[in-house]
Amino acid sequence: DRMLQDLHVDYIDLLLIHRPDQLMDPEEIAASFAQLQKDGKVKEFGVSNFSPIQFDLLQASMTKVGIKLITNQVELSVFNTSVMFDGTLDHAMLHGLHTTIWSPLGGGQLFKESTEGMSKEAADQLTRVRAA
Question: How far is 39 from 70, CA to CA, in rounded Å?
Fold first, then answer.
């Protein structure tokens, strides 16, 4: 309640679990989310940075309480394309999820003049993008 008051809102549209935790209890999370939804405090739920199997593990518990996770927020940029090849985006399409992206501009790296301080992979990728 205090968080809602601090934000000057009656409810939150979308609440995400930011990162998977190996110690999380999916049943406990599902019960908490169900209560938040029942109380009208949160409309929808999702996750951020979950692998497809981590997503499915939590969704199995959420299904038991009648909630569908609607998104997995993942990092995707010219510097980090791994979700395009590791099954994460395929999983989202398979399950009709709305994928949200964080750091689409690579944390500002796309606009840096110099590649100093970048990983070799990021510097090589930036060089390829600028040459295109």
Answer: 19
pLDDT of residue 103: 87
* Residue environment code for 112-125, b if the CB has 16+ CB neighbours within 10 A, otherwise e: eeebeebeeebbeb
| Residues forming a β-bridge with 77 | 80
Cβ(80)–Cβ(105) under 8 Å? Answer: no
Under a CB-based contact definition with an 8 Å cutoff, are residues 58 and 25 in contact?
no
| Residues 82, 21: Cα–Cα separation, whole Å | 20
First to last CA, the chain: 51
Q: Give the Cα-Cα-Cα angle 15, 10, 98 (nearest 5 degrees).
A: 30
Which stretches in the chain have pLDDT values below 50? none
How many whole angstroms separate alpha carbon 52 and alpha carbon 63? 16
Closest to 79 measured CA to CA, from 101, 63, 50, 57: 101
pTM equals 0.82
CA atoms within a 13 Å half-sphere pointing along the CA-CB vector of 65: 20
